[in-house]
Amino acid sequence: MENDSFLRRNLPTILWIAVLASTYFVLSALITPFTSGITLNTEIVTDRLKEIGSFLFGILGGLAIIEIYFYQIFFREPINRTATIVTRGIQIVLGVLTLIVIISFFNTTDLIKLGESAFGKFVHLPADSFTNLQDSLVKSKVATKDSGAMIAGIIFAAGILALYAVIQFISKPKASRAGLAYLLIMPAFIGVLFLIIYPFLFEIKLAFSNASLGTQATKNAEYGLIYGWENLKALFTGSVAKDAKFFEVFWRTILWTGINVTFHTLGGMGLAILLNRKLAFKGLYRTLLVIPWAIPTTIAAMALRNEFDSRYGLFNILLGNINEWFTTVSLNTANIVGIGNVFAWLAATIGPVSWKQDPFWAFVSVLMANIWLGIPFMSVIILGGLQSISQEYYEAAEIDGATRWQQFRNITLPLLRPVLTPAIILGVVWTFNKFDIIYLITQGGPQEKTDILVSSMYKAAFQFYRYGFTAMFALVIFAILFVFTLIYLKTSGGLKSATE
Amino acid sequence: MSTNSISRFFRWFFFRSRGDSPFKTILIHITLIICSVIAVYPALRVVTISLRPNDTLLTTDLRIIPENATLNNYKEVLFGAPEKNRQSDFFLWIWNSISVVAVTSVISVILAAISAYAFSRFKFPGRAAGLVFLLTTQMIPAGMLLLPLFIMIAKLKMINTSLGLIIAYAVTSVPLTIWTLKGYYDTIPVDLEEAALIDGASRLTVFTKIILPLSTPALAIAFLFSFMGGWSEYLVARVVLQKNEIYTWPLGIFTFAQEFTVSWGQFAAASVLIAIPVMALFLYSSKWLISGLTLGSVKG
Question: What is the pTM of this model?
């Protein structure tokens, strides 16, 4: 009986394990004859797992230590006077220690420069003692070179945990209303601090520096308001990447965003309206139409980039065929006045285009690619919105004698607004920032005539190594987007609904 | 007169939803078929090129199944070409991508699942500010923080490691995931938790026994979102990873895709191999993906 229920309870798990194991064996049996041609091997896999595992272990350990610290602040209360002094003493020491570690992190990453000053040495004490412990562990053969850091970390953590145990022992529980909320958001807060706030501060600092390849990034960089002013001046008067000027690129960005979002919305709306009815093969159409969105962007961009090849790309083959057809027709109809001329004119105008050399066509090519990629998303969103509109409105309107156009204007559009507005706003922000298509298809060329702001910035940083300049550039782009967002939030009241 | 009739046709075509005449139905079908062809044909071209034998790569042929179709490109991409003494990095790239993106997604879903609960259910000082801050981070271009992140990663000696890329990807992934999950938690009725709390359950029990099980679909969506976001990312990876052994697949595949060369066929084959599972997953989950999108963005 017992056995039976145990088996039955765990049958799905057992089955899954069996399926996974057999898949593994079949796959490895299939691949074994070819392993000599494959660079991936078990050693690489285990090395990576070790690397990531110790990384996660470190993060989790660090977070746990911080969480316990705040847990004891929020939920524990010392039992008497001496306990209070001991507890607060330990907590202050640990807090100062954390502060020192943070400052030393800033120092290592060059946000602040302490150098060899006394304070700099003091700040480096925890890190130095950590390295010393690690070295002595390795020397005394307790740990190997790889595990040294981890074992040293565990020893440090054990020390801190012992202090926590002391606090725990001399305290009693206490209620706290908001404490749990803070404990819950703490890990994400630390993550955001480390990943967003810190880089942002760093960016501001960089913007007021002359950091570049010549100064070895931040190593020998100098900081000051004058450098900020110079970066700003260079941005608006000089070239943003190699030759292109700021305003030229700025207007192109506006054009890029405007054209893309317009086509995405109109195309998406058209398809959604066509699909929002009883129709044979509706599911098939939906699946096929969503394919440009489903293909990984990188693959789509690289595939399209080759389709813009002047001789073997799809578009020039098609244009060439059309041109050939027009030419034949115009030759055959040369005697007929009017028609013959029309076809001759068509044959002369429509034909293969140099997508890569001509700036105009290069820009058209990236626009075509991005429009093709973006329409499905919009149409799916709009279709979802259309389907949520009750059919009763239309029936009532029909009884009142409203035309289809009136129904669309007065029922569909207003009811679609809650879906459409955020989709368009997000579309604008995304398209403004989206340059992977441009970068992969034209690399901003020819002569940077297809660059938009963000792609120029990327080039300034990672092709021309103008770090200080790039940081200022990024701040200006951020300001543009920030103003746009504020206007949007003000007009839509989105901020209020967001925080409610 | 002609503009008028065009606009009348336009209105008739689009804005008549019930009781379509047969003629109009045929027209709609033709339009949809043309649109589907435009949507699918460029993708099919990649399949075509992957099937071409190497000597006919450069051709102006437009057929979908080429002459003398061969699977040679696939074999070479997957298992290398021992006779040419060339090894295949395909599985290495896939493994690099999976290890980076999966870890990023797991970290951000765990962090978000916990903190989004606090944002959704508790009233505490700083809550509104935190939410507005998360909203603004979605407006910041990911590329904007790339330079300081790059310098930070370099100073921490994490260039050319998967850890550096995990950090860079977490920047966009964590706030977005918190936002999505908060939207979902908001839709779960509070009554359920209050009943449990009255019965003496602790907040943590409520969270692990009621909220987490109820939000499994949302957690899956958030994971998928984060995964899709990083999976085909190229620009950040290009900056952080500069060695072939550590390349993720977008970088690796790009080495094939330089121009119309012999490796163009291999690029196509590798693309098909990567795109098919991703597309299958995407089409299968697109319904939930969309509901996740609307949760995160439309609700505001």
Answer: 0.84
